Amino acid sequence: MTHAVVSMTKNVASQYGPHHIHCNAIAPAQVATKFAANMSKMDQFGLEVAARGVSMMPRIRTVEEVANIAIFLASDESSLINDVAIAADSGWSAY
After folding, report:
1. Maximum distance among all alpha carbons in the chain?
2. What is the per-residue pLDDT across 59-79, written as a single tens digit (0 to 9) for each?
3. Residues 29, 26: Cα–Cα separation, whole Å
């Protein structure tokens, strides 16, 4: 999770929190999408670097799992949550 995203989330949350507007971020690790299916001429070195930690993840997340987090954050059940960046990575960022 980049510092820029976390900082922006905190800034927006502090600026708009008094107006009852919450700002949170979702930082998923690898998600199964069709994004890369049509990619060609990928840089092998870059691909290896980007996928370096994938073997440490118990499994790849689904789009639906990440969407469920977004739905929760948009619901009334998350009314106490503001200024949070949720690492949806099965604990991968702990390594």
Report:
1. 49
2. 778 899 999 999 999 999 999
3. 10
pTM of the model as a whole: 0.75
Q: What is the pLDDT of residues 19-34, one digit of tens each?
A: 999 999 999 887 878 7
| Pairing relationship of beta strands 85-88 and 25-28 according to DSSP bridges | parallel
How is the chain split into domains, by residue range? 3-94
Round to whole Å and give the CA distance between 82 and 21: 9
For domain 3-94, the question of CATH label 3.40.50.10810 is answered with no
Distance (Å) of CA 17 to CA 2, 5, 69, 73: 22, 17, 20, 15
